[in-house]
Amino acid sequence: MRYLTAGESHGKQLTTIIEGIPSHLPLLREQINESLIRRQGGYGRGKRMQIEKDLVEITSGVRHGYTLGSPITLVVSNDDFKHWTDIMGEDPLPEDTQKIRRTVTKPRPGHADLNGGMKYGHRDMRNVLERSSARETAARVGAGAVAKVLLKELGIEVTGYVREIAGIVSDVDENLTLQQRREISEASPVRTFDEKAAEKMMHAIDEAKKEGDSIGGVTEVYVEGMPPGIGSYVQYDRKLDAKIAGSVMSINAYKGVEFGIGFEAARRNGSEVHDEILWSEERGYYRRTNRLGGFEGGMTTGMPIVVKGVMKPIPTLYKPLQSVDIETKEPFNASIERSDSCAVPAASVVMEHIVAFELAKAITDEFPADYFPRLKRAVDDYRKEVREF
Ligand SMILES: Cc1cc2nc3c(=O)[nH]c(=O)nc-3n(C[C@H](O)[C@H](O)[C@H](O)COP(=O)(O)O)c2cc1C
Ligand SMILES: C=C(O[C@@H]1CC(C(=O)O)=C[C@@H](OP(=O)(O)O)[C@H]1O)C(=O)O
């Protein structure tokens, strides 16, 4: 399985092409829309999200509610495009262009503007920001939503939520089931558990906004139902935890990844890190604890996968941060742009879908099948086999 996305933030549309989804998987447009709508929400988003109403059009690969096994194309229109037709059109510019050019020459620290401009020779850095914008995560969530449908049919569920914003931590009772995690976090405007922490987070977002600043945080994804042994220890590039980590790091503004207790492992003895192995007639092999977050040797253990990602504060600030105009080489203080002040709640939805895609890819790599019922039989047989090990 693989996918590509295309589209500029203020261009006509976002397009996702997904390859490798087996045929005969039941798939409805509404299942993708549900994910897209969730991504748009969350406290702290800016005015753009009031303009967009992300709804998908499936233009290939699905017929009468089932996948065909051929590439699936998803299209999400940018409603904002109608305000940008003169700036974003594909036709050559007319002679007298001064009025509509409005080139971006002031790079924002923390965004892709300057490096992208130098690399691609774009002296109008709009050509960079249009594609580096996290608008693209809508296209990625579309791919992840399809992956989630496949996983669910195989008894694997994935959910994402917020653990921390601006240093305010929301604890999660580790005994909560996936369903409980999903219900509680969905009900919270900051997509988290502890109501007191949620209040403080919202206050922090309001304060940041007032001060023209931005804040980051930590999101967590929790997965139930992955069979053990998915991924591999035999070659570095087959380790599934490494693939997930790379994928999470590819989300805009993500700066780090942890599995289970993560960096805390550096501060504990081995006896307080490793998860003891138990067996019962009822459950087969299982672990007393899940501090390693569901991975050993690059493979799933069969315990829930618990992975965290850290999102830096958003780079576009109203508060001045020094930069240099590339035309005049003069210093300037931050250009005022419309922006989110905190997108951590939305990013938790993005991360959920990014992880889901990696998992679906790992499953289809492990059990190659072009026909979904054959894939399901292979996974069921494998579950039985490892249960009897
Ligand atoms: C859901 C989401 C929304 C974002 N919204 C904004 C925004 O409104 N303004 C902004 O400057 N950056 C925003 N970002 C972050 C930038 O896209 C990101 O910092 C930029 O692409 C540079 O990439 P890097 O931070 O990974 O180095 C957002 C990120 C995510 C995941
Ligand atoms: C459009 C989305 O997020 C955008 C991500 C983003 C950025 O620089 O990453 C900048 C903002 O866009 P604009 O410049 O149009 O206000 C966000 O709204 C979205 O999530 O759908």
UniProtKB/TrEMBL annotation:
Keyword Amino-acid biosynthesis: yes
Pfam families on file: Chorismate_synt
Binding-site residues for FMN, renumbered to this chain: R131, S132, S133, N252, A253, G297, K312, P313, I314, P315, T316, R338
Family annotation (Gene3D superfamilies): Chorismate synthase AroC
SUPFAM superfamilies in alphabetical order: Chorismate synthase, AroC
Any GO BP annotation: aromatic amino acid family biosynthetic process
Biological or metabolic pathway of the protein: Metabolic intermediate biosynthesis; chorismate biosynthesis; chorismate from D-erythrose 4-phosphate and phosphoenolpyruvate: step 7/7
Cofactor or coenzyme needed: FMNH2
Subunit details: Homotetramer.
Family from the record: Belongs to the chorismate synthase family.
Name this protein carries in UniProt: Chorismate synthase
